[in-house]
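Hey, I'm writing a tutorial for new members on how sequence and structure tokens pair up, and I'd like a real worked example in the thread rather than a made-up one. If someone can provide the structure for the chain below, I'll link this post from the tutorial.
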Amino acid sequence: MKKINVFCVLVLALMLIDFVVDLFLNTSDASVELKLENESLGFVLFTFFFALLALGAVVVAVVSFVKFVLNVNRNEVFTEKNIKLIRKYGYCTLLGGVFLMFLSFFFVGHGFWDAVVDGLNALGEGFFALLIAEVFCIGMKLQENHP
């Protein structure tokens, strides 16, 4: 059980590092400048709201992952609660990747392909989490059939 704890903490740390790198350091320049100086107030407010949604998706993903790790520590592995937590983590990570691509393309000024690359890691992580959720669902069904 100790190995899975170390693995989960490592995944959480890598996820946070990836988010920080994507948000702050993954640009060709040393700084990120939002192109909002000539925009209307409505557009600026929309951008702020969109950025809050992106941050909310990341926070929900991190909280879901931490709850999953805590459940595993209590020997609650193949449960419906864990499957829901992993799915929530996967969907929020997918949303975070889409939001990151959108913000990168429209507000940071990256080209289309650069914006896709910015969110590709998060999309891959989200799809992988959804795959793991399905594996846990199969594991839960096997556990129910073979007590």
